[in-house]
Specification:
CATH class of the largest domain: Alpha Beta
Order of helices and strands: EHEEEHHHEHEEHHHHHHEHEHHEEHEHEE
Distance between the termini: 45 Å
CATH topology of the largest domain: Rossmann fold
Number of domains: 2
Oligomer: single chain
Strand content: 15-25%
Largest sheet: 7 strands, antiparallel
Number of strands: 14
Number of helices: 16
Helix content: 25-40%
Length: 465
């Protein structure tokens, strides 16, 4: 059972500091299912590869399981466990790379916090769901996936392919993030675990999934498979993951939206913003439109009233928000013809989601400022690199205008969940850079009354491919 991790970051041998394993030494540890070894097949300044090899003892596993009972089948002795990556690999990752998975490095902490070019190779990956599932799990996390099916028997091609894939995963990310992704997703792909799943597994899942699992478009499938289809544990894990047991998400969203609306209501900015976005979409004759971060559904509602929009998709990371939008739009009461025009999709704007490809336009209305600045590159890649609509209409607050809002304390942002608010210069710098990197042209339009000193309250960029 083999997994390799390679980087070309220079000096590449710094990978040893991040994994806490010396490239010049072999490290071996006993695990309950055999022995695990870490070694480096190559270690130069230009390229460094760490290999995790697990020598599974199937006879020992049988004896441990049977405790001396006579077995009537050869299956425990003849199986794929010594060769195909499984939950055994997750156990070995945690045992040998636990500190690296926590993102700690006494000698190279700045490097541990930095995204690096990383290449994961797995010669035999069991995937109950095929290459399509592999892509659904890893591509939203920013991986380029390459997989080759392994035939059941090369001498008998008519037998078809096995459920195993020779797999390569490439990304630019923190080493800790990649290790945690593998820890959770490898047993999910195998759809099996080699030990009893108890409530302790919820804690492991939430700890290893921190920062990415909540927003993953397949978080329900991942949770269900990771917990081996134990509905009670899966429900508890999902509730904690989505924080549904902590507060009422609908109420919290409404409170935050009301705060921002109160600030902007005096100048009727919300209506002006909707008119500007609809106008931009109609100018390019967009028939198939994504509303990314659809929030309260106002834009969806406006597009439904306009017959020129043939296909409308509202996207949000929160199930609670989508449920609230469905109630607001009264989806259950719509005529079949009208219902066919609209779909609500749970997805994160920072994950590569191929379901969002092939649309004429995407609206991103007052959303980008809710992202952590460190996630802007992922947002840019997912939107302009993968979804790649013909037109993107993006609005965001103009931080300079905040001084004109009565009752907004100096230096405050309009919404408590805003991670930043751009000045006009900051916004134009980011937008022009994103357009140039992605093959789009961009123009800027003011939204709302333009102040001669501080500009408009909302700034809008229209990207065209």
């Amino acid at each position: 059972m083999l997994l390799t991790l390679t980087t070309t970051h220079r000096p590449a041998t710094d990978l040893g500091y991040l994994l806490h394993k010396n490239p010049a030494a072999l490290r071996s540890v006993d695990v309950w299912f055999g022995k695990a070894h870490v070694f480096y097949p190559e270690a130069t300044d230009e390229r460094c590869t760490a290999a995790l090899l697990i020598d599974v003892d199937p006879i020992g596993l049988v004896r441990r399981k049977s405790r001396g009972a006579e077995l009537a089948s050869l299956e425990p002795y003849v199986n794929d466990r010594p060769y195909a990556v499984s939950s055994f690999m997750s156990v070995a990752l945690a045992k040998l790379f636990g500190t690296a998975m926590a993102g700690r490095s006494a000698e190279r902490q700045e490097l541990a916090d930095s995204p690096l070019p990383l290449d994961v190779r797995i010669p035999a990956l069991p995937c109950r769901g095929g290459e399509e599932l592999l892509r659904r799990l890893f591509e939203p996390l920013g991986y380029d996936v390459s997989a080759t099916p392994i035939p059941l028997d090369e001498q008998f091609p008519e037998w078809g392919d096995s459920p195993y894939l020779e797999t390569q995963l490439q990304t630019t990310a923190r080493v800790a993030d990649v290790l945690n992704h593998l820890y959770v997703l490898l047993p999910v792909l195998d759809d099996a675990k080699h030990y009893w799943v108890s409530r302790d597994e919820i804690e492991k899942l939430l700890r290893r999934g921190e920062g990415w699992l909540r927003d993953h478009p397949e978080n329900e499938l991942i949770t269900r498979r990771y917990l081996r289809y134990q509905p009670r544990l899966a429900r508890e894990a999902l509730a904690r993951l989505l924080e549904e047991d902590q507060s009422d998400p609908d109420l919290e969203v409404r409170r935050h939206d009301e705060e921002e609306e109160q600030v902007e209501r005096r100048i009727g900015l919300g209506d002006q913003r909707m008119d500007a976005v609809l106008g931009a979409l109609k100018t390019v004759a967009a028939g198939r439109v994504l509303d990314l971060g659809c929030g309260d559904g106002r834009l969806l509602q406006a597009m439904l009233r306009d017959g020129s929009f043939e296909r409308i998709v509202g996207v949000d990371v929160s199930y609670a928000v989508l449920e609230r939008v469905a109630r607001r739009l009264r989806l259950q009461e719509m005529s079949p013809k009208q219902r066919e025009r609209i779909e609500l999709v749970q997805s994160s704007l920072t994950y590569k989601d191929r379901r969002l490809q092939g649309y004429d336009a995407a609206a991103v209305v007052e959303v980008v400022e809710h992202l952590d600045p460190s996630r802007l590159d992922a947002f840019e890649g997912a939107l302009f690199g993968v979804a790649r609509p013909g037109t993107v209409v993006l609005t965001t607050p103009n931080a300079e205008y905040n001084v004109r809002f009565e009752g907004l304390p100096t230096g405050s942002m309009r919404h408590r969940d805003h991670r930043f608010e751009w000045t006009r210069a900051d916004f134009e710098t980011w937008a022009r850079g994103a357009a140039e990197r992605s093959g789009y042209a961009v123009r800027f339009e003011p939204v709302g009354p333009v102040d001669p000193e501080v500009g408009p309250p909302t700034q809008m960029a229209v990207f065209t491919r």
